[in-house]
Design goal:
Elements (H helix, E strand, L loop, with lengths): L1 H10 L6 H15 L3 H14 L4 H15 L3 H20 L3 H17 L3 H33 L4 H15 L2 H8 L5 H12 L5 H16 L3 H19 L5 H21 L23
Helix pairs in contact: 1-2, 1-3, 2-3, 2-4, 3-4, 4-5, 4-6, 5-6, 6-7, 7-8, 8-9, 10-11, 11-12, 12-13
Length: about 280
Amino acid sequence: MAKKLLAQAEAATSADAGAFVLLRLARDIAAQASNGETALAAVDAMSERYQIDALEMKAEMLYKCAKKARTPPQHLSVAEQAARLLDEATAAGNYAQAVKLVKLAVAEGGLSRSKEIVLWAKACLPDLQKKAKLATEFEAAQSTLAADPNDPVANLTAGTYYGYLQGDWAKALPHLAKGTDANLQTLAQRELASPSTDIDAQVAVADAWWDAGQNAEGMKRLAILRHAGSWYAKAQTETLGGLGKVKVEKRLEELAKAEREANVAGPGTRVFVPFGKWFSLLPSP
């Protein structure tokens, strides 16, 4: 019934007010039947035509599906849809919701008797919890900076958020240059003062960030190495030869390897692959 209602709604014109009612019915019936795939498809169709918070509505539907699930296949469907939605949550920077979704995947994966999903979800959880914590701290830092733009603690938090979570170093550097971390402060100030057209200066900035990345861990390490890599890539497009060229190429290869091992694709971490390939997302031993 939910699928039929969804098909009818999709066949209706955008101006048809009844389409919204059909989509809402399809969504709710699918959730009652614990069919997460159809419920989320109905929300996607709604978001294409109407102004809604698709991410929050999808999450709400999945939690309803989880409550109605009774069989292992139903629990498995909820776990897989939670994994897909997790990608949207992280891309939107909603790490609080991402943590809830990965916990849902752990619970539903366990009820579906899928060890692969449980292992994958548990591997994702610690990093997402750190990101959620940083996002919460960033919200508080924004209020502080509105009152005092030079507050060193708030600047460090803002710089860390923009650099590590958003990958937006243009926004991160001015904050880090005012922050309490002496090393990051020095690196940020050095980069802001460096001429962007001088190839030796570009490589020197990249080297400094690369060295800093060796002493960092987790998402911080990869974010810093990515930033160094952006400078190496810029230098590589210029006239660079000899040992300098060899070093740059080697480090860009090392960065590519780090990306593969972390199984990420930018600040909005993509975390889902089709069922049966969950282990490709787990960190290398």
